[in-house]
Design brief:
Blueprint: H1 2-12, H2 16-28, E1 46-48, E2 51-53, E3 57-59, H3 70-73, E4 80-86, E5 99-102, E6 107-110, H4 119-127, E7 136-140, H5 149-160, E8 166-170, H6 185-202, E9 211-215, H7 221-233, E10 238-241, E11 262-264, H8 269-282, E12 289-292, H9 298-307, E13 311-314, H10 316-321, H11 325-339, H12 353-358
Parallel strand pairs: 3-4, 3-13, 4-7, 7-8, 8-9, 9-10, 10-12, 12-13
Antiparallel strand pairs: 1-2, 5-6, 6-11
Length: 363
Amino acid sequence: MALNSIVFSLVRSFNPERAHWLTIQALKLGITPNYRTDTFSKLLASKVFGISFPNPIGLAAGFDKSAEAFAGLSKLDCGFLEVGTLTLRPQPGNERPRVFRLSDDHAIINRYGFNNHGLNRGIKRLARRKKSYGIIGVNVGINKDSTSPVTDYIEGLKLVLPVADYITINISSPNTPGLRDLQTAEKLEELLSSIDKTLHQQEKQLIIPPILLKIAPDLTKIEIQEITKIALNKKISGLIVSNTTTTRPNFLKSNTQKELGGLSGPPIFDLSTKKLAETYLACNGDLPLIGVGGIDSAETAYMKIKAGANLVQLYTALTYKGPDLFRSITSGLTQLLKNDKYKNVQDAVGVDAEYWANKAISD
């Protein structure tokens, strides 16, 4: 444990993008602690959109961008992993520097721009994975120079169908120009109609995995209601709420707060949790939700669940708190559920949704 702490501190001494690259290389080489356990708490295990999850705490997309490190990541005791965002063609992303630590806020701003090796390379890696690596979702986006986003999403979807346990359609990154426009009702209807048609065509050849949609935290309540209505009509399996935010709360302390890009970490917890609750209420709990944004402890994971999340994901906190974070959260969450006398984590979903939906968010 002491050695892990020393290595983690050493990696964090580098600039954030270099530190991330070094972490991915270490994970690829198997240089990672093994926190996995074969015994899972019945309190935490549940079935969501047809998949049996050993626990509800997952790693969000953006960490293993090119599906290189999932073997190492699977040792961290997370309930599931999401790789990507992967695009049809490889792309380098935006110019550096493009990721910034807000150390005083335990937050990050990034404007990576979907830098990845491309879907073909990612799929080849995923096709060789072992079942012991656990549940792996694949996050799909579009290239920055795409002239036909809907077509690109459909082509990407076809490629990923055979290798993913679930697929996330990412229409909410703030770092690809025009991407968030796909959240408008008219464009979303077109995209999801095309996806629905494609899935029907593939049903005879393949078992279709759940299809999720990842949305932004910067949507209005009315926009969330429109998206939820369309998602239910098009039989989307679930929503991920939410991506990073382009807003900047005025309580940020770090000097890098004015950098362009998406903000993640504890400063967006209240905003993303409010939007999660609004989404839960908009769909009357009929659509499984994954809550993301600012989770860094068992307590914040539990709040997200009670606001409406069937599952949760984190990323930024891992870069600040280290590889034993998942184990710490699952242990703490188990105790919190016992304290409240819940028999299963899903029994707590949405119990505080009204509170969070009506909560005033401070700037």
